[in-house]
Every structure is written in C-alpha cells, then in structure tokens.
TrEMBL record:
It comes from Sediminispirochaeta smaragdinae (strain DSM 11293 / JCM 15392 / SEBR 4228) (Spirochaeta smaragdinae). It is a lipid-anchor. Belongs to the BMP lipoprotein family. Its main location: membrane. SUPFAM superfamilies: Periplasmic binding protein-like I. The keyword Lipoprotein applies. Residues 1-23 form the signal peptide. Residues 44-300 form the ABC transporter substrate-binding protein PnrA-like domain. This is Basic membrane lipoprotein. Gene3D superfamilies: 3.40.50.2300.
Length: 335
C-alpha cells in the first residue's frame, strides 16, 4: 500500500508540473539485471498499451506499476506505449508482436476489438485485455467485478453527505462506468432517499482541468461528495473539492495521499495484482486464453486508505459490508 501511495504521488506531481502529455509515447523500460548464463532460456518479454498517461494517478498508473512488478519480481523484459489513440492500436499491437514480445497487454475496454483482429495474425504471441471480456486460443482478458465497489461508495456517500447532493464525474460513457453508475444511483436512493445524484462526463481520461471544471460546477450546485471514475480527471476533482470544501471518493488507485482530509477513501481495483497473476502463469507455462471476472473475493478490489474525517462508525459499517462480500454473504456484483 505504501509503495502504491508513493508511486501515485510521484506520477501525479509529474502531470501537474509538466502540463504536457505526449501522445503515443513508446518506451522500452529497463530490464532487470541479467544474471542468467548464456544457455539459459530467453528472457520473457511483455509489452503494454495504454490509452492514457502512466502518471494519471489511477487506472494507468496502476497498470504501469503492474508492468514494473513483472520486471522486478519475475525478471521479465518490459516495454510500454502510453497515450495510444484508437487509430494506432492495431499498428502498435502488431509492432510489439513482430518484435518478439511473448505477451502484449491492452489496458482498457477500448482495446478489445483491436486485439481480436490482430491476435489471429500472431498465433504464437499471447494477448491480454484488462477491463474486457475477449477470449481466443491466444487471447485472455480480465474485468473487475461491477457493482461491489459502487455499492460501498454509494453507501458511504449517502451517509456522509450533509447537503444531500452527491455527484459523479466520469471520463467516458462506457458500459463498465454505466454499470457502476446504476449501482451508485440505486444504493444512494435506498440508503438516503432525500439525496440527489448528478452525473457528468468530461470526455477525457487525461485532462485534469476538465475534471476540475466538472467538479466545480457540481459543487456550485450544492454537491458535497463526488465519486470520480476518470483517471487523471480524478486529480482535477480533488483539486476542486480541496478549494471549495467538498469531498471525493477516488476510484481505481488510492488517491488519499493527494488530499488526506478530502479523499474519504478510494475504491481500489488492483490492476498490478491482476497483471502479476498473468505473468506468473506465463512463467509457469500454464497461461490459457480465458476471460475472468475479478472481484472482492479474489483480493483485487477493496477500499483504500480512509480519511480521518470519516466517522469511525460509518467506516466500520462500510467495511462490514466489504467483509460480507469477501465472505460471499452479501452479493452486489452485476457481472
């Protein structure tokens, strides 16, 4: 957890200080030190494509952490391309396959179609989609359980709000986000019938300013708790909440370190653990083309660091629901 906080803080500082993000940035990350003999098996090579920057503090930062864990813990050679536009997905996938990478990962729902088109051209290369449900002999995928974390976030926001106005800021109107919104709306209405729920989209996973603008607009209308699923846009929402005295529930990464008194908690989806599991199966020779839903019971989804501003009894109530989901006695998953 500490490592995740430090990485997020460093990455987000880079976003805010540079103010410039380069599209299609391709990097061959430094491989682990070579301690093998000349007759040892060739080093496993893994590449990743991301539609956003590795320093967004959330979805893509966590993917990059997972990639570096393959290098540091398993000795793999790694490479990545960030800020991949949809028009370049297939050419970049092909490029990595042609260069002899054993596993090529598309990080996000948006890579599914491109992976399914390119994969048959390279039957000896394995492809994996994080956040999707594609499958073939050489294609696997993993999607996080939908509904569980949004139920917890909905209950927390509904009981914490003082104005009875809760906001949601998302990047894109995609199926996974819509499923989480549905559970948020349902839970808020059930827990606090007096509360309203406002939804806004920024249209970008990378624009911090758009996240801030959307949050400021909601706060101006009385919203005092915002649930944010927008990668770098979450950073903007946190900035706005910090300036105007509102609160944020983060998503994907653990955002508490950015504003401990503003970020109530974060609904963490541990992409690093999902990616590391793929690497271990690849190394052990038992990787298979399959699609799997990863949820709270698998240990990859959980509330992150809690702010001290959350009353102890409310935190305990939310965590009790989390433990019930983990034990299989409370069912809120919708996929």
């Amino acid at each position: 957890m500490k490592r995740n906080k430090i990485l997020i803080a460093m990455m987000v500082i880079a976003v805010l200080c540079t103010g410039v993000l380069f599209a299609g940035g391709q990097q061959d990350a430094a491989p682990a030190a070579d301690t093998t003999s000349s007759d040892a098996p060739a080093q496993v090579k893994v590449a990743m494509l991301m539609s956003g920057p590795i320093n967004d503090g959330g979805w893509n930062t966590s993917a990059y952490e997972g990639l570096t864990r393959l290098r540091d813990e398993l000795g793999f050679e790694i490479a990545y391309t960030e800020m991949v536009p949809q028009s370049q997905q297939k050419s970049i996938l092909r490029n990595y396959a042609q260069r002899g990478y054993d596993l090529v990962i598309g990080h996000g729902f948006e890579f599914g179609d491109s992976i399914m088109e390119v994969a048959p051209e390279f039957p000896d290369v394995k492809f994996y989609q994080v956040g999707g449900e594609v499958q073939a002999d050489n294609v696997g995928s993993g999607v996080f359980g939908l509904g569980e974390l949004s139920y917890l976030a909905g209950k927390l926001s509904a009981k914490f709000t003082k104005t009875n106005k809760i906001g949601f800021i998302g990047a894109m109107e995609i199926p996974t986000t819509l499923a989480e919104i549905d559970m948020l709306r349902e839970t808020i209405a059930e827990v606090n019938p007096k509360a309203s729920f406002t939804v806004a989209y920024t249209g970008s996973w990378t624009d911090v300013n758009k996240g801030k603008e959307a949050a400021l607009a909601q706060i101006a209308n009385g919203v005092d708790v915002i649930v944010a699923i927008g990668d770098a846009c979450d950073v903007g929402a946190i900035q706005a909440a910090k300036e105007r005295g509102a609160y944020v529930i983060g998503w994907s990464g653990d955002f508490n370190s950015l504003a401990p008194d503003i970020v109530l908690t974060s609904m963490v989806q541990s992409v690093p653990d999902m990616i590391l599991m793929q690497g271990k199966m690849l190394k052990e020779g038992n990787w298979k083309g399959m699609s799997k839903v990863w949820g709270i019971a698998d240990g990859v989804e959980y509330p992150g660091t809690w702010s001290k501003v959350v009353p102890a009894e409310l935190k305990d109530e939310v965590m009790a629901d989390f433990e019930a989901m983990k034990a299989g006695t409370l069912h809120k998953r919708v996929n």
